[in-house]
Amino acid sequence: MGICWGSPVDNHTPSTTGHLSSVISQTTSQTTSSTISNISKNSQFSAASGDEVFPHGQILPSSNLREYSLAELKAATKNFRAEALLGEGGFGKVYKGWLEEKGLGRKGNSMVIAVKKLKSDSVQGIEEWQSEVGFLGRLSHPNLVKLLGYCWEDHELLLTYEFMQKGSLENHLFGRGSAVTPLGWDTRLKIAIGAARGLAFLHTSDKQVIYRDFKASNILLDGSYTAKLSDFGLAKLGPSESKSHLTTRVMGTHGYAAPEYVTTGHLYVKSDVYGFGVVLIEMLTGLRALDENRPTGQENLMDWIKPFLSERRKLKNVMDFRLEGKYPSRSAFQVAQLALQCIEQEQKNRPSMKEVVETLEQIETVNEKLIETGRNRASRLASNRNAHQPLHHNSPLHMKQYGGHANQTPPRCR
């Protein structure tokens, strides 16, 4: 089986890639409504999936997506003008738009949205559009980006999402310039936990969902840095109970795809865990999974970083310099150990995403206790300093000694 990877451009994350059929789809005779209905029926989800483990997530009994007209989305994005472009992936571009909300009883109220305009001239573009609608149209969780609606008109394929104010994790980790705010340790931990919860929700549904393209550019952040997984174009339903894996053509992003998937085409639920481990390491080090500008032999981060993660003394030498040393070394080392478990060569030796969430939450709890302890210690030190300060203000002794005038200047020593 051949493997086709996209080449990185300008040191950005390599684009999502895969085998593209030379046969362009000839089938769009069905109406959009019937297509959406068919996708929903074939999704094979049940409404009760995953509720016990993740009470905030659910699989909807049916899709509640809105159908937008092409005219609406053109108006929202000013005809997809270049200034509105937020980003570009392997199968389309994403634009920022303002959509007039209806039924609110007042004019001039608009909602900020993100509109993905997919390439409709390829089988892969159509498949990605259908996959997004099929999964995000039914899946609801605080750590999955919300799909608002869709458009299939005049051979145009579009998807409309909630707008994520802080952009992608990739931009915060690797972006440059004054507009990019470096992420502190606590924020990085919050993002890792949020992304892990989203992935765990997918893995624990009654029909396991394999995300298949976990990477920093697919983790979007809202105004409070809550992480949400986006781009379900490559997502697949997991194997049946009688099977351990799927066998499928190799698709994904070089540097994040699990080794067993790259070499054999065998896709396991824990293939996603490998990608999560790679992103954890990126968050620790501030280094890209794949960077052709690094010295020979260091282009692929996973090829050389492991020895630095296994010892606390070595870890500090590769921690992201933008943290400025402001992180608890114990917590950082624990995250590094978890990352090493996630990128184990054998998929069966990797933890489940449920176990990953539990571990990260324990690390966060200890981290919060350390912060609270530090605050209490600082408070006690400040109190002790104040207690030992000489009393120069309106004390009875002070007033008696200097004639009862509280504001009188003490006499000079001659």
Automatic annotation (TrEMBL):
UniProt keyword annotations, A-Z: ATP-binding, Cell membrane, Kinase, Membrane, Nucleotide-binding, Serine/threonine-protein kinase, Transferase
Molecular-function GO terms, alphabetical: ATP binding; protein serine/threonine kinase activity
Superkingdom, taxonomy of origin: Eukaryota
Keyword Transferase: yes
Binding site for ATP: K117
InterPro entries with a match to the protein in the record: Kinase-like_dom_sf, Plant_Ser_Thr_Prot_Kinase, Prot_kinase_dom, Protein_kinase_ATP_BS, Ser-Thr/Tyr_kinase_cat_dom, Ser/Thr_kinase_AS
Locations listed in the record: Cell membrane
Principal cellular location given in the protein's record: membrane
Domain Protein kinase: 80-363
Catalytic activity, EC: 2.7.11.1
Pfam families attached to this UniProt entry: PK_Tyr_Ser-Thr
PROSITE patterns according to UniProt: PROTEIN_KINASE_ATP (PS00107), PROTEIN_KINASE_DOM (PS50011), PROTEIN_KINASE_ST (PS00108)
Keyword Transcription recorded: no
Region feature (Disordered): 385-414
Cellular component aspect of the GO annotation: plasma membrane
Sequence similarity: Belongs to the protein kinase superfamily. Ser/Thr protein kinase family.
PANTHER family reported for this sequence: OS01G0588500 PROTEIN-RELATED
Job description of the protein: May be involved in plant defense signaling.
UniProt protein name: non-specific serine/threonine protein kinase
Organism of derivation: Cucumis melo var. makuwa
